[in-house]
Specification:
Elements lengths: L3 H24 L3 H5 L2 H6 L1 E7 L5 H14 L4 E6 L3 H4 L11 H5 L3 E3 L8 H17 L4 E7 L4 H6 L4 E6 L5 H11 L4 E4 L7 H16 L11 E4 L8 H18 L1 H28 L1 H15 L5 H14 L6 H8 L1
Parallel strand pairs: 1-4, 1-5, 2-3, 2-4, 5-6, 6-7
Bound molecules: guanosine-5'-triphosphate.
Length: 332
């Protein structure tokens, strides 16, 4: 269920986005160029953070975020929760998970959007990043649960990707490692304290060797593995040091700027894809045919390809499409 506040926040977000687009159109500049200067963009840190449930993401973000706000930064924590679009639940972004940071005037924690398609949820997260940049947050952390495809979507929204892991092995971790390690710029082994310290050292060595087999994505940065304790705060400054190291190197080489430009292109196409699907589904003649075609495909009377072609022909036949403004309303 969407609460009234969430509904209003979404409306405000969409309204601000529309305004940003109009300002960009008027000045014929890139939307983000209009609100964030080059100097600000150089100092901006946008990182994705993922890890399996129980790795200590909330505890880490709380400790890391406090360290940053104490050093004069403004920190925004956003969340992408793939389960929220299907179950209506929200694993992430809950303010009670980070009680101290959520009370901090220099931190903003945005709960995960809990409605809409995954595309819509991601789109709103991406728009929230742009708004946080404009509002002067210089560190933006986008948190995801490390179990789905969302990491790869988030990797297209942020400058760097951080994987947080607990000092434990097992099959679950092996599976997790394979996909995500390929997009990780920094692996943080959490809970490196007390009795868990020897295990944390072992996991650090394991990830360090796993990273050797990953195809490098940058010519100036080699992914690192560090140990931290979010409880004792040991290693927290080092995590920040590594993140700024990544940003400075990739910025100076031009890689970061190029990556951000490419991401804008990816998101343009993501938006087009989302909108096209909605237009398609809302097209009156397509709507009349969809149920029949789905039925025939399921009964094996027609191949999926032939059914898709029939629907696409119907869509192309009449240029009449639904009102895009109506689509935005429906998204809410
Ligand atoms: N010893 C130790 N325990 C930690 C550390 N960080 C987190 N924990 C503990 O690990 C457990 C899980 O921490 P959370 O921060 O809730 O983990 P999470 O990844 O956010 O978990 P989800 O909310 O389920 O996604 C809690 O009992 C924490 O107290 C750490 O650095 N050292």
């Amino acid at each position: 269920m969407i609460t009234d506040i969430e509904r209003r926040c979404s409306s405000v977000l969409i309204l601000v986005n529309v305004l940003l687009e109009q300002v960009a159109e008027l000045s014929q500049t890139d939307c983000t160029d209009g609100i964030v200067t080059t100097h600000q963009r150089l100092l901006l840190e946008k990182a994705g953070l993922t890890g399996p449930p129980g790795a200590g993401k909330s505890t880490f973000i709380e400790a890391f975020g406090k360290f940053l706000t104490d050093s004069g930064h403004k920190v925004a924590v956003l969340a992408v929760d793939p389960s929220s679009s299907t179950t209506g639940g929200s694993l992430l972004g809950d303010k009670t998970r980070m009680p101290e940071l959520s009370r901090d005037m220099n931190a903003y924690i945005r709960p995960s959007p809990t409605s809409g398609t995954l595309g819509g949820v991601n789109r709103r997260t991406n728009e929230a990043i742009v708004l946080c940049e404009g509002a002067g947050y210089d560190v933006i952390l986008v948190e995801t649960v490390g179990v789905g495809q969302s990491e790869f979507v988030v990797a297209d929204m942020v400058d760097m990707f951080v994987l947080l892991v607990p000092p434990a092995g097992g099959d679950e971790l092996q599976a997790l490692k394979k996909g995500i390690v390929e997009v990780a710029d920094l692996v943080v082994v959490n809970k490196a304290d007390g009795d868990l310290l020897p295990a944390a050292r072992r996991i650090q060595a394991e990830y360090t060797s796993a990273l050797k087999f990953v195809r490098p994505r940058s010519v100036v940065w080699k992914p690192r593995v560090i140990r931290v304790s979010s409880l004792t705060k040991e290693g927290i400054p080092k995590a920040w040091d590594r993140m700024t190291g990544f940003r400075n190197k990739t910025w100076n080489s031009g890689e970061l700027d190029m990556k951000r430009r490419r991401q804008h292109r990816v998101w343009m196409w993501n938006h087009i894809q989302d909108s096209m699907i909605k237009l398609f589904r809302q097209h009156p003649s397509v709507q009349r045919l969809i149920d029949r075609m789905e039925d025939r495909v399921m009964r094996g009377e027609i191949t999926p390809g032939a059914a898709a072609d029939a629907l696409l022909r119907e869509f192309q036949k009449s240029p009449k499409t639904s009102n895009p403004e109506q689509i935005q309303q429906d998204e809410l």
